[in-house]
Design brief:
Length: 196
């Protein structure tokens, strides 16, 4: 499929803790052949943070564990939404899109292979979603979160407010890549966006 039709959709891990997750998940099949899902870390990443404080292991190790936390959430999403196919590589994503599926990214392989991605808490799933969108040449990056964001969406302002990680302005390069944000109550807007 043409790269400029791809939508990279980051599904926040915090959504798993609220009652709205089924509504968000119900919209995802509308993205068949167009959307690539990036999972947040959610409670799985929170467990890594907690154990790092308790055991004192390095940020490098915590980062690798957090990537696995994202993969755990990805597997949960794929289990709940049969249209989603777990993918590790760009080729797997492109094949899944070409077959009319919805890739959900397992990020460890690609993220660890790129030395430009810091192995620290400076980078979370938000920056990884921006990295993937740039790598795929996507049309847009949509962050789906449990909070609303101020408009206009300015990456540096979002980072300063703690709404995305501090590396996000560096990884979101803009240009032809559009940025969108969906918050509470916007499940129908997601379905419309994916169906457009």
């Amino acid at each position: 499929m043409p790269h400029d039709r791809i939508i990279v959709l980051k599904i926040g891990g915090s959504l798993a803790e609220g009652a709205s997750l089924p509504g968000w998940l119900a919209a995802l099949p509308a993205g068949r052949g167009r959307a690539v899902i990036v999972p947040g870390g959610g409670v799985f990443a929170d467990a890594v943070r907690h154990e790092q404080q308790h055991l004192g292991f390095s940020d490098r190790t915590a980062n690798r564990m957090a990537l696995l936390a994202m993969e755990q959430y990805a597997l949960v999403l794929a289990d709940l939404v049969p249209a989603l196919t777990p993918c590790r590589t760009i080729d797997e994503m492109r094949w899944t899109l070409a077959e009319g599926g919805v890739p959900v990214w397992l990020p460890s392989l690609l993220a660890l292979a790129d030395r430009s991605i810091p192995e620290s808490w400076e980078v979370t799933s938000d920056s990884l979603a921006a990295w993937l969108a740039a790598t795929l040449g996507a049309r847009s990056l949509v962050l789906v979160k449990s909070v609303a964001a101020p408009r206009p969406l300015e990456p540096a302002h979002l980072a300063a407010q703690g709404m995305v990680d501090t590396a996000f302005p560096r990884f979101f390069r803009g240009g032809d890549l559009a940025l969108d944000w969906l918050g509470p109550g916007e499940e129908e807007r997601l379905a419309d966006l994916l169906a457009a």
